[in-house]
Design brief:
CATH topology of one domain: TIM Barrel
Helix content: 25-40%
Structural class: alpha/beta
Number of strands: 21
Largest sheet: 7 strands, antiparallel
Oligomer: single chain
Distance between the termini: 58 Å
Radius of gyration: 26 Å
Amino acid sequence: MENSSSPSALLTDLYQLTMLAGYLEEGMHIEPAVFDLFFRESPFHGSYAVFAGLEPALRYLENLHFTGKDIAYLQRLGIFRPAFLDFLAEFRFRGKVTAPLEGTVVFANEPLLTIEGTLAEAQFVETALLNIINFQTLVATKAARLTAVAGEGAVVDFGLRRAQGPDGALSVARAACIGGVASTSNVLAGRTFGLPVKGTHAHSWIMAFSDELSAFRAYAECFPDSSILLVDTYDTLRSGIPNAITVARELRARGHELVGIRLDSGDLAYLSKEARRRFDEAGFPHVRIVASNELDEYVIHSIRSEGGRVDIYGVGTRLATCAGVGGGALGGVYKLVRFAGEPKLKVTSDISKATLPDAKRVLRAIDRSGRFLQDVLCLHSEEPRPGERVYDPLNPSRHKRIPNDATFEEVRRVVMEAGKISFELPALGASSELRADQVRRLPEGTLRLVNPHTYKVSMSRGIHALRSRLMENCLRRLPGG
């Protein structure tokens, strides 16, 4: 059960407050508005992302309010008028949210969250929603990439010490679970989210004893049914593995079994193969081999392609910081698409940054085998059909037809009405199962680490026509237009 606290209302950029104050002064704050939250490029130079962060985002919206201390602090800034501070004291989010379920595979340029409410409500929540959704979706995507290449091997979150602060570490463990990393070394995350906690011991444990064998024996004495021994403090092949086999025999003689060993340096593919051979020959085929040390999806892929025999991958820095090519941040943005009953469009000389106007549905075209074919964005008044022409949002001159045998699924659903969560939030395990099912249904080549298949996201005829018309209107209003 998730019970982490919601962010403060002050977790926002100052300009959200100044805009809110300005809207109040202009009498615009109660006008209806619709915003879309989306990203423009898939992270890690991949072709997809795994949506995460919905539950904490909805909890934030449901609990959003300014406390007396918040109001007092804003008053001390000397920026805001008393009438605005009085307005904030009663401010709540009472809007509507449409979103995918966590674990859903999502793609660039399609709305993840759609926020509907008054302009005051829908604008103010931008910063916090981007903070929550961007990071957790990035981590869930990284985790999904790791678990995809790990095959039958398990992945454990070892990232607590390298995460961006305590809150970041909790978010990593949560989102990584959605991405398929089902256990963590983070004990607080284990309690908060009900995750299995896993761990071994550090090199300092070995170094604190007079010799390696004594250290192994002491650890096994303390934890006879859960010992995983770190074997690379001095020499993995000449010392660590032989001493671990000795302790495994001693444990068995007392009615216990050694659970595993951990490799934290060296050629992990070769060492894991050699460790597997030696433990099998010694009569311990059940001993599991754990690998750590700056692992990411590329290193894991290399270990497996070279015949490595790793059972569990402990991934720390590269998971917690989402390091790697194309990583570090998800470029999610939050754009106004409808205001005061009229569709809105951001026009720019770079067509890739022009927005798609109005509130939209996201439909997923599926073939007869259940595989995903492409996503189609359409207006609520439209019903795209197989064989219909759809357009590339980044280059509208390019178009294709929806396959004739395609059927459609709605990617999103209404998850909040009148500021209250309107459906039963799934457990993290269920979100992870959804992610696994959706990843299996991606087109061939989408999971490749290098030059993956580009999954198509298209806009309908209605959106294409609406955007073209709005662009023409905007250009006519420009000087010389």
